[in-house]
Sequence to fold (197 residues):
Amino acid sequence: MSSTKKIKTALVSVFHKDGLEALLAKLHEKGVQFLSTGGTQQFIESLGYPCQKVEEVTTYPSILGGRVKTLHPKIFGGILGRRELDEDKQQMAQYEIPEIDLVIVDLYPFEQTVASGASEADIIEKIDIGGISLIRAGAKNFKDVVIVPSKAEYKPLLDIISKNGAQTTLEDRRWFATRAFGVSSHYDTAIHNWFEK
Fold:
């Protein structure tokens, strides 16, 4: 079993879209298919790239004021499914779960919202649930999935794809996963510190 994995489908759902164009252009050039939500989906299509809506995969709209968009077995199954396990592969086929090989996601700006002197209600809404869950899922399944947890990782991935095409080594994916758990840890610590105060 080769540790080099091809990127065929990317889930892209980001709050900060600056700096994303070059990475999307390179992924599109290499034949990677996009899956996205709301504003990011519109952004991808505005660049002229086809993009499937997450809602088409889940058959659910974005609900509860956007609090629940990606939290669905078809999305998380697509990220967490173990490609080498026959049982997982069979279940993915049975429930029509697409394989998601790359997750590009970032988190709501919690710390910036706190620093801006926003109300408690606004701060609470900036506690990310879907994003942090996608980051953890992608990082957990780094054997099969590349996780890009913030815009700081756009360039490292762009460099890899420019050099090797739309594929990564296990070592690459472990590096991204390590970054992802760093992002997750920092984020939860910031939220915890705010609650403590």
